[in-house]
Structures are given as C-alpha cells and as structure tokens.
Amino acid sequence: MKIEVCPQPFNPWSVLQDYEAQRAQAGKCGATACFIGTMRDYNAGDSVQQMWLEHYAGMTELYLQQLAREAEQRWELLDSLILHRVGEIHCDQTIVLVAAWAGHRSPALDACRYLIEELKHRAPFWKRETLNTGQQRWVAQNTPK
Amino acid sequence: MKIEVCPQPFNPWSVLQDYEAQRAQAGKCGATACFIGTMRDYNAGDSVQQMWLEHYAGMTELYLQQLAREAEQRWELLDSLILHRVGEIHCDQTIVLVAAWAGHRSPALDACRYLIEELKHRAPFWKRETLNTGQQRWVAQNTPK
Amino acid sequence: MNITVKLFASLREQVGKGEVKLKADKPMTIAQIWAQVSEEMPLPTHILMALNMQYVEPNAIAKAGDEVAFFPPVTGG
Amino acid sequence: MNITVKLFASLREQVGKGEVKLKADKPMTIAQIWAQVSEEMPLPTHILMALNMQYVEPNAIAKAGDEVAFFPPVTGG
Q1: B6-15, B19-28, B32-41, D56-65: which has the minimum mean pLDDT?
Q2: Which helix (H) or strand (E) holds A64?
Q3: Which pLDDT belongs to residue A85?
Q4: Who contacts B101 (Cβ-Cβ below 8 Å, separation ≥6)?
Q5: Do D75 and A140 touch (CB under 8 A)?
Q6: What are the tens digits of pLDDT across the range C36-57?
Q7: What is the nearest CA distance from B26 to chain C, expressed in angstroms?
Q8: B interface residues, C as partner, C-beta within 8 Å
Q9: Mean pLDDT of all residues in A28-32
C-alpha cells in the first residue's frame, strides 16, 4: 500500500511504473484499475487559471490510509495506492491518482471507483480556484459524479 | 484514439505516458480511467506456465475500433485507447490495456468498464494455456466478472 | 469466385482446417457453409459466426468474394 | 491543558482563525467548542467536525489534550 500527499507535481504513469517495478511480481495479479483526476481549465461555467489545494495535515493521511485498508479488505485486493496533490496546481496537472490491484477485474474496478468516490466525499481536501478574471473562490461542493 | 494488437510485450504505464506526451494537452481532461489485465500463474484451479493468444487478424482490429468509437460517442470521451497482446505471453506480462479520457470521472469510469467488458465478450481473441504439467488447453470461457 | 472460410482456436483443431476456399456458384447461408466445411458436423451451440468480419446469425447469406469465419466463444482480455 | 481547535478553508476565513487553543477545565461537546471559537455563530448546516482526526457529530465530547477541527464540505479528488 502506498499513500501520499504530494506538494510537488508528479506524473501518474511514472509513479505507477516505479511502484510496480519495486514490488515483487508474484503471478497473482490479474487486474489493475486506476483513476486519475486532472486539473481542467474550466469549472462550473468559468475559466479557471490555477488552483490551490488545502488539506488537514495528519487527518488526510490517516483517512486515506483507512480508506485504502478498508478497500483492500472488502475486495481482497493485492495492493492499493492513493496519491493526492496539495498546494498550487496548474492546468493539465494531476490532482489525484488511485489504483487497485486484484486477482480479477471486478474487484479491481469496483475498488478503484470506491476509492475515488469516498476520497471525494470524505477526505479533508479543499480547492480554491483562481479564475481567469483574477477572482478567487473556494469550490463549494464536488459534482455528484 | 489508439487501437493496437501487439505481438510484443509492452509496459502499460510507459505506453500511457508516451501516448499522453504526444497528445495536445488542452485543459479539457478532468478524468482518466484505465484497466490492465495481466497474466496470472493460475487459472481455474490449475498452475499456468504460459499462454498463447490467437486472434482473427483484421476482424479484431475492426471490432476494437468500433468498440472504442462507440464508447467515445456514448460517453462523450475526449479520447480512448485499447492495446491487446497476441502470441506467447508469460506470467506478470500485460495482456490488455484500456483507457478512457473524459471531462468528468463518471463517464471515464463507466466507459473504461464498458471497454473491458465488451472486449472480453466480443473481441475475437482466444487463449490457450500451457499448464505447469505441460498440458495445453483452450480457455473455454471468460469468467463472467 | 470463391468464399473464403476461416476457423479459429479449438474449432480449427476440431474441424482440422484453418482456412478453406469454397466454390460459390450461388449465394449460401452461413449454416450451409458450415455444413460443407465441417462435413455435416452439427453446428456447435456456442459457436460465433462472422461475415466479412462482422458478427452474423446462421441465416445470413454469403456470396462469392465474401469472407466467412467460425469460432468458439472469445476469451481475450 | 488545552484543546487545540483547527479551522480550514472557507470556514477559517469566515471565522478569521486557523488555530485556537481553548482552556479545557472540563470536557466539552464539539458544539460548545464551536460556540466558543466562533463567538456564538450558529453551526453552519454542512459543516464537518473531527475529534482527534476522526469524523464526529456535534454531541461528541472533547477533553484536554484533544484536537478538534471544523471544516466545510470537502472538495478533493
């Protein structure tokens, strides 16, 4: 399991490649599902220039660990990973990466969706957007889907 | 869109990294979902040593293109990708990679699942396993999930 | 002109042929083509059929120049 | 001993404080702590509360040494 709150930009694909390379491959994994959230240049009808991501240091890491552990138990995962950016984020940069490894496809896909949905609804992160107009605003709520 | 039937092993993460690097990033993508199928060392209660993947050259590529196009339209995807191995496959090697890019997470996740499910049920590929005992057998049917 | 008939995977081994050219003096149904290629084997229950690389049912009609394929349930992914 | 109270994001800006140490002579409910920190602002409807980094309801009880946090709906991911 790997859980990380990242102040610096990261490339999700090289994170996954490095993570798998240092793990022992043992022939048991048949399915990997992953989800990546990326910063768009628009939100709620407005052009967005950049974003600031605040978090509750300590609780965030704890919550993400609980979440990953819960998913690993519920779907009998072989492994799971959650990385989330904090700080200043620009367009096309990765905000979040979740991944689930399992023997078969259904648990991997179900767990991956669960990780991102639960993270969005419960993990203590907050987005503040800077619009192209210069106006700053806190995002009030995540879209339901 | 990228569709490929691959006779040689590939690393799914570097494929995705290279593919994204050569695409124009335009601030519209908020969500990427991907699924990777990997060869296990067991199946249906038996130890598997290696696998041979046969396909219907021509129809396979055509079917995968139709599938990706259909998913792109149905979920208004920004992009999609399907890579599938053929030939001799060893333990821990990637068999299939599917990915879907969208503005929001729900279409990306739904389309990703659709791509792998439809591919498993309709794309003309066939697996022949070589067990640790040396016995060879055609896989009769994919697991329902 | 011929109809090209292809068989794949376990079905190819069962029938003992991978590709056959059938003389096609007149259009034939896929079921008739199967009977000819397999030498009257009954059509296996879960068999899949394609005409010019699109899935079809046994009553679809093939003519000279077409490609017809028979194969077992697919197991990719 | 104190109770440490943290506020985040828009709520921190609304209340005008990010972190406060409250004197805790006796255990208090989270709701009482909110009243004291916010100087009697009504508890916002969608506010989330944590005690020692676990989600709790307003009737949970905090004592000296505990960490309490108030924050708006989360918007990560």
Answers
A1: B19-28
A2: helix A59-74
A3: 98
A4: B29, B31, B32, B77, B78, B79, B80, B108
A5: yes
A6: 999 999 999 899 999 999 999 9
A7: 31
A8: 37, 53-56, 58-59, 62-63, 84, 95-96, 116, 119-128, 138-142
A9: 97
Cβ of B126 and C72 within 8 Å? Answer: yes
Asked whether at least 3 C-beta pairs link A and D within 8 Å, the reply is yes
Q: List C residues 30-69 in contact with B (Cβ-Cβ < 8 A).
A: 48, 50, 53, 55, 69
Query: Is this structure's pTM higher than 0.90?
Result: yes
Task: Detail the DSSP E strand segments found in chain A.
Answer: 2-6, 31-38, 42-43, 46-55, 79-85, 87-90, 94-102, 125-131, 136-138
Chains C and D touch (3+ CB pairs under 8 A): no
Read off the pLDDT of residues B56-99 as tens digits, 9 standing for 90 and up.
Answer: 999 999 999 999 999 999 999 999 999 999 999 999 999 999 99
What is the per-residue pLDDT for A145?
66
**What string of DSSP letters covers D26-77?**
S-EEHHHHHHHHTTSPPPPTT-EEEETTEEE-TT-EE-TT-EEEEEPPP---
